[in-house]
Amino acid sequence: MDAQELLARESFIELNARNRAKKLLDEGTFSELLDSFERVSSPWLARQGIVTQADDGTVVARGSIDGLPAVVLGIDGGFQGGSMGEVSAAKIAGSLELAAEDNRNGIPTRAVILFETGGVRLQEANLGLAAIAEIHAAIVDLRRYQPVIGITAGPIGCYGGMSIAAGLCSYLIATREARLGLNGPAVIEQEAGITEFDSRDRPMIWSFTGGEQRYRTGLVDVYVGDDADAVRTAVIERFRAGRPEACRSERVAGFLQRLSEIDPSEQSSPENVVAIYGKGFQS
Fold first, then answer.
1. Which of 30, 139, 31, 44 has the alpha carbon at shortest distance from 87?
2. Which of 10, 7, 124, 105 lies closest to 56, judged by CA?
3. Dihedral of the CA atoms 17, 231, 99, 135 (nearest 10)?
4. pLDDT digits (tens, 9 = 90+) for 38-57
5. Parallel, antiparallel, or unpaired for β 171-175 and 148-152?
6. How far apart are the first and last CA of the chain?
7. CATH code of the domain made up of 10-249
8. How far is CA 53 from CA 56, 59, 60, 104, 186, in A?
9. Phi/psi at 46 (nearest 5 deg)?
10. CA gap 221, 223 in Å, rounded
11. According to the lineage, what is the superkingdom (predicted)?
């Protein structure tokens, strides 16, 4: 790609959650539900002296993608690290549930989830965890009818209970700048020690949990550059492909087989992980 093409390219990562949703939806079809003017924010943060955000860090946008009805659920990584509380997670779960109900009524509504999140909001603890569990159930319900596509682009990454939600999606799209993991680097270092995982070693972190490595190991389905048009094209292509023969979470036996080949007594390397996971995951 030459310099002129690079300058013409629109960064997807630099867009906020609302503009990412607008970019993915067909032009002129964006309509936001429970927007900031509705003032549906967390009832718990203010009690702890934390400034709230009017949309609680989640954008729910309806419109169409490739001419068919769709909902895009964007997580704002700039608010509380994209963490999920009772309200923000309920907005996502409720939207997915309504999309599934649409399909049962003959309306082929699809869903895209923009993962920019550290997981559960610690200030809301069990309430957030319960709502994230509802997201998991809603994804599994909807994907019976239509593909559910997850996108993790950066800079926050996708961690915690929401990384499980990403794993439940029919397809997962990632950029090179993305990170995906159940536990974040700081948490791993805190629990296992710096010799196990140095949270300051950025090259090492991306070599294990970055978007490119996750694609090489089969944990991400589509690897794209930081180009808003390329991300939209990837979403359309995955929707046109339809439901995969087996979603990632339906291939448990294959993943367990690969995990059994890892020797926990030895320090893993990115290359070793690729060699093992590259063998594939049968159902």
1. 44
2. 124
3. -60
4. 888 999 999 999 999 999 99
5. parallel
6. 39
7. 3.90.226.10
8. 5, 12, 15, 34, 26
9. -60, -35
10. 7
11. Bacteria
Instruction: Report the C-alpha gap between 170 and 58 in whole angstroms.
Output: 21
In angstroms, rounded to a whole number, what is the distance separating the alpha carbons of residues 159 and 214? 13
Distance of CA 153 to the CA centre of its chain: 8
Is the separation of the CB atoms in 114 and 73 below 8 Å?
A: yes
Q: What is the mean pLDDT of residues 196-220?
A: 94
- Residues 19 and 29: their CA atoms lie apart, in Å, by 13
What pTM does this model have? 0.94
Tokens of 271: 């290359």
Contact by Cβ (8 Å): 61, 72: yes
Beta strands in the chain (DSSP E): 31-33, 58-65, 68-75, 110-114, 148-152, 171-175, 222-224
Handedness of CA 87, 90, 92, 98 (dihedral sign): negative
Cis amide bond preceding 270, omega within 30: no
Q: Which two tokens stand for residue 210?
A: 């970055």
pLDDT in tens, 64-103: 999 999 999 999 999 999 999 999 999 999 999 999 999 9
Q: Which two tokens stand for residue 144?
A: 């019976």
| Residues listed for the chain | 283
Residues 35, 199 contacting (CB under 8 angstroms): no
